[in-house]
């Protein structure tokens, strides 16, 4: 298939539905002006966290055998995220590029520039390139790389580099992670798979329920992006460039060094590296009193620019089917 034919298919099969969902969230208050946006966002996020997302994690974990190839995805994406974080630290904290920025803004941009929306946006793109079974790459990357790093290194960045509240505001990270239903759903599914206890009707039922995860979160993403305030600030665009271009570049460069025979999993890791900033960056900014407006701007700009950088990365041949 030629590049332009593949791009046209990507536009119709992935970008169009994702854009419609984000657009629906953005326009919701225009058609329903009485909507309490914060309450609606909170309720939908809670529904995803406690029902939809745990179901899809259980379904995938209980039906996916663990392999070294599968583990290469969180490994490579983690390397790309850490490399991006290192560069962002130098740009935001060590170089005199934006001296007027507060530490709260720097930390918010660093978090957003490190961690991508590897499930809610990454999963549909993976399925497009590699088929329905590729969903497992997004699930295992989220559980084995994104979530552990966000709630350890990410919390450290928020509290040590950005927060000025001192030790009193630092949560018990292990307690926070153990209170998350997705963790337990993934572990339960993984245990069922390892012990040979997977029950196919239950897997299909949880997979059916979990299909709502991505549409709901993308709708919430549309409500979250500050569309009227998307001004092109230099520090935000620089962080966006690091997230959208440097992360996949690092994965693309490192992958053949670690895995000389590049396979589907390694190319899936490159796809995961291309994704825009994750919405958890805004959650961390709110929780630790960072610059929530800067985090929202970065999420908005990376989401918009993703529709341009992904075709560019495809044209460069970094992703192969």
Number of helical elements: 14
CATH topology: Na+/H+ antiporter like fold
Q: Give the termini distance in whole angstroms.
A: 10 Å
Radius of gyration: 19 Å
How much of the sequence is in beta strands? Answer: under 5%
> Overall 3D geometry?
globular
Instruction: Give the second-level CATH assignment, the architecture.
Output: Up-down Bundle
- Could you name the ranges where pLDDT drops below 50 across 5 or more consecutive residues? none
The number of E-state strands comes to: 0
Helix content: over 70%
Helices and strands, in N-to-C order? HHHHHHHHHHHHHH
Summary, kept brief:
By secondary structure, the chain is mainly alpha-helical. The chain is 75% helix and 0% strand.
Description of the structure:
With about 325 residues, the chain is an all-alpha fold. It has one domain: Up-down Bundle (Na+/H+ antiporter like fold). It is built from 14 helices and no strands. Helix 1 crosses helix 10, helix 4 packs parallel to helix 11 and helix 4 runs parallel beside helix 14. It is globular. It starts with a helix and ends in a 6-residue tail after the last helix. The mean pLDDT is about 95.
